[in-house]
Fold these 3 entries.
Entry 1:
Amino acid sequence: MSQKSVIHTDKAPAAIGPYSQAVVAPVGKTVFLSGQIGLNPATGELVSDQIEAQARQAFANMTEVIKAAGGTLDNIVKLTLFVTDLKDFGVVNSVMSSLIPEPFPARSTVEVSGLPKGALFEVEAIIVI
């Protein structure tokens, strides 16, 4: 199977975080992952009221779903991040860049007015295995 490849042009703004302008997905099985928030899988409760801990747990939860689908974090071609306050953009970028391998997937970040269980962060992904 071929690896994903990154599309970049200087005629559009460069990425301002750990993501690519666009990604060409390899041929394979496409899996659409539902959003994950920072819930402890054992208790169903948020792991913390802090954005960094919630983001780390949400990415951990997403990682387990990717593994269950037969993939790895390298298989991510698109992420969508949801935050309740864009001031947390830097924290989320830091967490993401420490966990997601390069080349980074395409990504969107959206500020929302609320998330389930009062979460501060949610992540969803598209992977190709």
Entry 2:
Amino acid sequence: MMVAYILVAVVGIAALVGTLMVAGKADADYSTATKGNLTRILLMYIILGIIVIIGAIVVCIYLI
């Protein structure tokens, strides 16, 4: 089970880094609003992380 947690963390971090790398290579209209776009993307990752943590806790509770 610990391997699954590590794998999820690694994939999440890789997705975050990839998103931030791609965000710097956008068209002119996108780069003018980069701060707002990155803020929204970051909020999505935070919300997704919270959902994953809650889901993992619920799964652990029902499996134990």
Entry 3:
Amino acid sequence: MSTELPPYFFRIRENGAFVFRVDTENRMRRIEMDQIAAVNIRNGEIKPHGDRDLTPEDLAAIADWMRDRNETLAQRQIDDILRTVDHLNLTAHWAQTKATDEQLEQISDALLLAMHDLRSVLTRKKADRLLASQGGAAADDGDD
């Protein structure tokens, strides 16, 4: 564990984080965390906590964290999708080799509908990309 703490701590929440300034330079050498802001990662909003004025250093640290957090979330999303591909392959193997008729009856309709929906979306998006790369206008169905 490092002996020097970072100047800021970001307590993750679903839409962003609460931002704390970390202070160890006090009489008792205790760690003090002073909330300075709330960050909404979805809309980029930074709200100072209470009547605080955020310094340029605070804003730069928050902007860096938001950029890094968005990159992390994007990487996790792709990883989740790739895991889904693995799960689909494992599910196909299970259905072919181990599933009972009762188990297949229990999951088949839900899985077939979900796969049909996914196939429709992927096919439409691929067609849109192909049309766009050929200079054609992509069809807009209003779902995006």
